[in-house]
Amino acid sequence: MTITYDPHHPMYLDEADTRAELTRVYDLCHGCRLCFKFCTSFPTLFELIDRFDDQDAGKLTPAEQDKVIDECFQCKLCYVNCPYIPELHEWALDFPRLMLRADAMRYANGHKSLRSKVTTQMLSRTDLIGTAATTVAPVANKMVAGEKNSVIRKAVSAVTGVSAVRLLPSYAKQRFSSWFRKRATPVLSRRQGKVTVFPTCLVEYQETRIGKDLVAVYEHNGIECSLTDAGCCGAPWLHSGDIKHFTKIAEKNVATLAAEVRAGGDIVVPQPTCGYVLKKDYLDYVGGPDAELVAAHTYDAAEYLMKVHKDDDSSLETEFPGEVPEKVTYHTPCHLRAQNIGFKSRDLMKLTGSKVKLVQQCSGIDGMWGFRAENEDISIPIAAKLAEQIDKADGDVVTGDCHLANTAITEQTGEPAVHPLTFMARAYDIQPD
């Protein structure tokens, strides 16, 4: 048994060794049970072990171990709350990274089904599909993001394994990068920073409004924006177990982003999963000085703005002539909480004078996990629970940093949720073009 979360370790993909480590960790988690409320992986695990009189995790079959793995959607909250993580305890327990190792082991050893691999290909090739879909957006949206459970959606689901009953993000007619390069660049009256925007595939191909509002708010506050040529962060590949494909993307992005940092700019990411990947996962799977440089200079969109606001020689504009709701419900995405940076989006929105109420229930999406047809029975109830908490919060507007989580909120409540940077743009009276 090897306690390792290093994907370069010679035993990382060894099946017997990985399953021995799963037994060790499953036994520890069963004895603790602190994380019973975060996802179905833990209740499933506890129920499986409780069947045995001696409660021996070593008696679980590989299929039973895999059931726990399949129900993990990488929210990271168990790690955030675990008292036995490597930095704090000799048990060195990192459940999310062990699940990544187990998925990678199963992928490398041919344990993934053909249907699962097809779904991974469909959901992970975001740049290829996004480029094609934005070219024929109306047709693509009819097929991919059209009416739930329609004949077309059912047919697509049968072929790809993508859920026919989930609301999926629609594609834009114009890519964010196309808009950015064609726009008239303003002359900044005061310069308080320089950033390179890593738009993420969600902003590049789908919710381009987030990127446009980010740029507008940043430039309104004297922050110069440029755009990187890096593509998808690779998270869908990583979370599906294909670490070879993920690492190839990560190495390319690290080289591109490190060059941007050396040119004098920080990296700003408007989606929390992608920000987490740049800050955390690139260090594990690529490593080296460039990955460390990128991680040290990567910021969530609101995190960077609050950094500027708290610097001694700079501050944000605090006059808000636009739309400022009295009560704001703010959904805190799991992958933003896992970055351990505090509630920067909440702090940013509070500058407007709005009262901000936090909702910290997971959406159950994890990038692409919640859009797989095989996960509907688990993911939809999680999203429904989030909707209940949002309804109870009774805000005038609902905000959230993750567009995928916002899509789940819209699906379950019937009301749109907006990114905090869009909220700020309207408060500054910056209107959509």
Written description of the protein model:
The chain is α/β, with parallel strands linked by helices and 433 residues long. It has four domains: 15-108; 114-160, no CATH class; 176-310, Up-down Bundle (Glutathione S-transferase Yfyf (Class Pi), Chain A, domain 2); 327-427, Rossmann fold (3-Layer(aba) Sandwich). Helix content is 53%, strand content 7%. It contains 22 helices and seven strands. The chain has helices at 15-32, 41-50, 62-70, 77-81, 95-108, 114-124, 126-135, 137-144, 151-160, 176-182, 200-206, 208-220, 235-239, 243-262, 272-285, 288-296, 301-310, 334-337, 344-350, 376-393, 403-413, 420-427, and strands at residues 193-197, 223-227, 266-269, 298-300, 327-331, 355-359, 397-400. Helix 17 packs across helix 19 (344-350) and helix 20 (376-393) packs across helix 21. The protein is globular. The chain starts with 14 loop residues before the first helix and ends in a 6-residue tail after the last helix.
